[in-house]
Amino acid sequence: MFASLTEEQWHAIITNDATFDNTFLYGVGSTGIFCRPSCKSRNPKKEYVKIFKDAQQAIAEGFRPCKRCKPCDLRMPDEDWTLKIKAYINEHYDKPLTLAHLADQCHGSPYHLQKTFKRIMHISPIAYLQRVRIAHAKQELVETEKSIANIGVNVGIPNTSYFITLFKRQTGTTPKQFRLSFQKES
């Protein structure tokens, strides 16, 4: 069983106090990742924090070590980490996502995330994000009568001209032409 969070521990977590690194580890229930108190990742919500005396206890509770602070010098296998990054992108494709944001959410550095993702997926995280966005845009073009601008916003690309350019680059056709060609086939 994990210990309850004290105010001193919470303060150590939100201030990234390295003096507590050998005292406890904390896990974040919403991500399933555990960290050192000095971890520079985004501060978790207090209600999701679980305190552990050591890495073995955290692992036994089903938590994975953070890629950024390496709380036990164990690393999540790169393939598993890449799947986690893909899942995050697939779930949040409609939000403004940057490499730095992905790295923060997935507990790693932007450089390492870019390098690892590209090695495993043979595509950069941002190129993968664009593919996901265009796939969702295609679906909306076929299934709805929404405007091209609204679809761009819905898939996370609020600049309409950039959305049309990206869509054409990936599909060979504009969103309007794509919609028309699908309607002709039906």
Task: Using brief descriptors, characterize the structure shown.
186 residues, alpha+beta, DNA Methylphosphotriester Repair Domain, 2 domains, 9 helices
What does this structure look like?
This protein is α+β, with helices and mostly antiparallel strands. It has two domains: 7-65, DNA Methylphosphotriester Repair Domain; 77-186, Arc Repressor Mutant, subunit A (Orthogonal Bundle), CATH 1.10.10. The chain is built from nine helices and four strands, in the order αβββαβααααααα. It has a four-stranded mixed beta sheet. 31% of the residues are buried.
Secondary-structure map with pairings?
Layout: H1 7-14, E1 25-28, E2 33-35, E3 49-52, H2 55-60, E4 64-65, H3 78-92, H4 99-105, H5 110-121, H6 125-143, H7 148-154, H8 160-171, H9 175-185
Parallel strand pairs: 2-4
Antiparallel strand pairs: 1-2, 1-3
What's the architecture of the largest domain in CATH terms?
Orthogonal Bundle
Radius of gyration from CA coordinates: 21 Å
What is the beta-strand fraction? 5-15%
Largest sheet: 4 strands, mixed
For the biggest β-sheet, the strand order reads 3-1-2-4
**Number of beta-strand segments:** 4
CATH uppermost class of the largest domain: Mainly Alpha
Fourth CATH level, the homologous superfamily of the largest domain: Homeodomain-like
Mean pLDDT across every amino acid position: 89
Give a summary of the structure in a few sentences.
With 186 residues, the chain is of the alpha+beta class.
